[in-house]
Amino acid sequence: MAGNSFGKIFKLTTFGESHGPAIGGILEGCPAGLQLDFEAINAEMQRRKPGQSKIVTQRKEADEVTFLSGIFEGKTTGTPIGFTIENINQKSADYNHIKNIYRPSHADFTYDKKYGVRDYRGGGRSSARETACRVVGGAIAKQLLKDVKITAYVSAVGAIELKKHFSELDFSEIEKNPVRCADAETASKMEKFIKEIRKEGDTVGGKITCVIENVPIGLGEPVFDKLHAALGMAMLSINAVKGFEYGSGFAGTKMKGSEHNDIFNEDGSTKTNHSGGIQGGISNGETIYFNVAFKPVATIMQKQETIDSAGKKAEAEGKGRHDPCVVPRAVPIVEAMAALVLADYWLIGKVSKF
Ligand SMILES: Cc1cc2nc3c(=O)[nH]c(=O)nc-3n(C[C@H](O)[C@H](O)[C@H](O)COP(=O)(O)O)c2cc1C
Ligand SMILES: C=C(O[C@@H]1CC(C(=O)O)=C[C@@H](OP(=O)(O)O)[C@H]1O)C(=O)O
């Protein structure tokens, strides 16, 4: 199976299935001599792990990382960093009834048709459990990036939107509520709504905004490997993501050039930032910001019409533990993927000129 790696120099390969004994990864290209902060890595894992609050899946995993290689006396050695995360709380019987049945809008049908082998237990490799490995890689990338500050927060759950611009928000609010919305009042509305939706056995989508400050000028390549293209690929590779827009995004289509152009100050900074910190694929030193859209989770606790592997009409009904809304746990995943891209492009930049 191709597609298990991400990045060109700072390269993360992940392995493992949701209901196998463990998941893990190999991170290549991390420069030697980086003093790792293991508590910071663990803190990122705790932000993503299942079972952390009442509005997420109740699967209970510790999500402790065991490092196997590439680190000596707390510092990276420049060799591949191998790590594993145990799966402890699999309940594979929750999936027995859909062994030969395709859940609408999950990956069951496409995996089966493509490979002819489907690990139906917890969705196997298609489960978002794999994103735990991305968070490990991203936490190391964040440490490499030092002064670059990557902050993501939930900006919509269903039709409940946080209307404030990121510059008006107090980011210290984000970790104070289980939704990870940067505004306490909106967060409590969102939390209430997710609980209602869960009671109905249904699910809801949402939006995450990511803001990246202190980005040096010059990350990104002018053709193909444009920084925004890499960020888009990274975000769209996260399970359940349906949309990506950076800078003015789709709203920019409604503006005139005279309104949209970012006018320079004499020091090269710009008075506005509709470009979203990237021009011509290269970071311009302004804050990078983008939105990521997530669909409602496919596995619902309601009966839905579907088909089985023989193409016969069947019924699918979710059992067990599922996220009613993925955005609260996807916040650290978005940050991790952004960090992986920036670390990779920083290293690419280092080799592209003397
Ligand atoms: C943090 C997170 C948690 C998720 N939890 C669930 C879940 O509990 N149940 C489910 O059916 N899908 C869940 N998903 C989404 C599926 O993994 C995803 O829909 C599936 O792999 C099919 O891929 P696609 O939606 O990108 O097409 C989750 C996604 C993320 C990012
Ligand atoms: C296990 C995690 O999330 C899982 C993601 C997921 C899916 O279909 O993506 C389905 C559920 O799996 P299970 O039925 O095995 O509990 C979630 O709990 C995790 O994020 O670590």
UniProtKB/TrEMBL annotation:
Species of provenance = Aequorivita echinoideorum
Q: What is the lineage of its organism?
A: Bacteria, Pseudomonadati, Bacteroidota, Flavobacteriia, Flavobacteriales
Family affiliation: Belongs to the chorismate synthase family.
- Entry's cofactor comment: Reduced FMN (FMNH(2)).
> What does it catalyze?
5-O-(1-carboxyvinyl)-3-phosphoshikimate = chorismate + phosphate
Q: What is this protein called?
A: Chorismate synthase
Q: Which cofactor does it need?
A: FMNH2
Q: Which residues bind NADP(+)?
A: 48, 54
> Which InterPro entries does its entry note?
Chorismate_synth, Chorismate_synth_AroC_sf, Chorismate_synthase_CS
Biological or metabolic pathway of the protein? Metabolic intermediate biosynthesis; chorismate biosynthesis; chorismate from D-erythrose 4-phosphate and phosphoenolpyruvate: step 7/7
Q: What does this protein do?
A: This reaction introduces a second double bond into the aromatic ring system.
Q: Does the keyword Lyase apply?
A: yes
- Describe the subunit structure: Homotetramer.
Q: Which sites bind FMN? A: 125-127, 239-240, 280, 295-299, 321
Q: Which gene encodes it?
A: aroC
GO molecular function term, any single one = chorismate synthase activity
